[in-house]
Write a structure and sequence with these properties.
Order of helices and strands: HEEHHHHHHHHHHHH
Radius of gyration: 34 Å
Helix content: 55-70%
Structural class: mainly alpha
Strand order of the largest sheet: 1-2
Distance between the termini: 106 Å
Strand content: under 5%
Shape: globular
Largest sheet: 2 strands, antiparallel
Length: about 325
């Protein structure tokens, strides 16, 4: 009797018809992928919470507050009434005019001085450059209140050092803080002293990126020092100039510390800026609704001026 051979499974890879074994992937642990995706949001959550509590909430609430009329502790809905009052408020326009005067007169003078100072500090002929740079930058690190009190003491009519020096050379005393014209001049002098070094450092950093080969090539072509400055230095300084113009414009429109500390907005509201008027409206007369409207009007003015300056700079390019 013949016994039939038993069917044995073919060894792996013995023929084309051999079945292939597939490996089933291990199941992923639940929750690992979701936690990894949420991790970045958890890290930025504290910063977002702080931003919402101390930035976003005051902005939104102040806008809502500008739609109410504040009378003591009572608030009455007035819609755009505060903004209509703003348009017809002569003191607001006077404060805006004082701020614009400082912007138009003081800022160009300060930036011109800063540019000249930066060119001088970048000169190869100047020795002890770090000492001079530190000396001109030191006023920036002085606190606003401290330097406001210091300037007020120096410009005091009776006991100030400035009037003492004027009398020493035979000149009459100047009513720096009690005369409307000289009070504006005093504010501009204080701002120029405090911020010229700051802008000069920005210009100096930009000057050091202008290739020296361009100046050498212009000198070889016969260009003098003034032509090299006008055609080589200034075009290379354009980004820094735009930055300082925009920052100085914003800072001047928000001006508060110097006039508030030195003159209190006087005499006869000659140095009352928009910032001072906003503070007086809110914290002296407790008209927070109208003060909020002043703040949003200031935001609108700053935004419009900033956009105009950036657009003009792009068109010049």
């Amino acid at each position: 009797m013949t016994t039939a051979p038993l069917d044995r499974p073919a060894p792996p890879g013995a023929g084309p018809s051999a079945p292939r074994t597939r490996t089933t992937p291990a199941p992923r642990r639940a929750g690992r992928g979701g936690g990894a995706r949420l991790a970045p949001y958890l890290f930025v959550l504290p910063a977002l919470a702080l931003f919402a509590a101390f930035r976003l909430y005051p902005v939104v609430w102040s806008f809502l507050l500008s739609l109410y009329r504040t009378d003591g502790v009572q608030q009455t809905w007035t819609g755009l009434g505060n903004y209509d009052r703003l348009i017809h408020d002569p003191l607001f326009w006077k404060a805006l005019g004082n701020t614009a005067l400082i912007l138009v007169v003081q800022v160009p003078v300060m930036l011109a001085l800063a540019l000249g100072l930066a060119v001088a500090l970048n000169s190869a002929l100047l020795r002890w450059k770090p000492v001079f740079r530190l000396g001109f930058f030191l006023p920036v690190v002085t606190g606003l209140v401290t330097y406001g009190l210091m300037m007020g003491a120096l410009l005091n009519q009776d006991s100030g050092a400035v009037n003492w020096l004027l009398q020493l050379v035979g000149l009459p005393q100047v009513h720096w803080l009690s005369d409307p014209f000289w009070a504006r001049v005093a504010i501009m002098l204080a701002l120029t002293w405090h911020y010229t070094g700051y802008n000069a450092v920005i210009y100096l950093a930009r000057l050091q990126t202008v290739p020296a080969e361009q100046h050498e090539a212009a000198a070889v072509d016969g260009a003098g020092a003034w032509r090299r400055f006008w055609h080589v230095t200034l075009p290379g300084m354009r980004p820094a100039l735009l930055l300082t113009v925009v920052l100085s414009t914003i800072g001047t429109l928000q001006l508060f510390d110097e006039p508030f500390i030195m003159t209190g907005g006087g005499p006869d509201n000659a140095t009352t800026t928009i910032g001072v008027y906003l503070y007086q409206t809110g914290f002296r007369y407790f008209d927070f609704g109208y003060a909020s409207a002043i703040g949003y009007a200031l935001v609108l003015i700053i935004s419009l001026l900033g956009l105009v300056q950036v657009k003009l700079a792009k068109e010049e390019e």
